[in-house]
Amino acid sequence: MKTNRLEAFSDGVLAIIITIMVLELKTPKEVTMHALIDEIPLFFSYLISFLYIGIYWNNHHHLFQITEKVNGKILWANLHLLFWLSLIPFATSWIGENHIVSLPIALYGFILLMCGLAFFILQKVIINHHDKDFALRKAIGKDIKGKVSLFLYTAGLLLSFVEPWMAIGCYVFVAIMWVVPDKRIEKNIE
Q: 152, 129, 127, 157: which is closest to 142 by C-alpha?
């Protein structure tokens, strides 16, 4: 089975996720600087979440640019990833409404951890569906960046109960780490 239907469906789901998040941004009821400043936590959580959805969309695109065929396991692994990504708007809204409080930040970290694990699973299922010379296998290698991300998500999740700002720092650092383009797959496509 070719990848085009899976890619189109995933693109649509990710577009809907971003749409849901932007609809949570409400204009202040008052026309004052103070009212606008009160919205900063929600806007900041939206910004980070938008960045994460963009990162996953970009990596998903690269993943399926190199993937030659899909099967049922890949479809389910992809749905698993989309499930966790679809929960990001909920956690984003909860953080924005409650500012820097441990439980919403912990939930956000848990969802990011599960997204990272789901993407890792999707990569493995795709690799296992192709032969041993499959370019993705070579491109991913030991996946140090992915493993560091999972470690930092876990650290952020634990830190959220002690020092929420440090947890946010972990999540932002991972996002920055992934915004820097990952050339592993592109090098193997060429």
A: 127
CB atoms within 10 A of CB 81: 23
User: How far is the first Cα of the chain from the last one, in angstroms, to the nearest whole number?
Assistant: 23
- Give the pLDDT confidence of 132-185 residue by residue, as tens digits: 888 778 777 778 888 999 999 999 999 999 999 999 999 999 999 998 766 766
Q: How many CB atoms lie within 10 A of CB 161?
A: 12
> How many Å apart are CA 75 and CA 128, to the nearest integer?
14
pTM of the model: 0.91
Query: In Å, how far are 63, 66, 158, 181 from 172, measured between CA atoms?
Result: 23, 28, 15, 16
Q: 54 exposed, middle or buried (CB, 10 Å; 0-12, 13-18, 19+)?
A: middle
The radius of gyration computed from the CA coordinates of the chain, to the nearest angstrom, equals 18
The encoded tokens of residue 41 equal: 């936590």
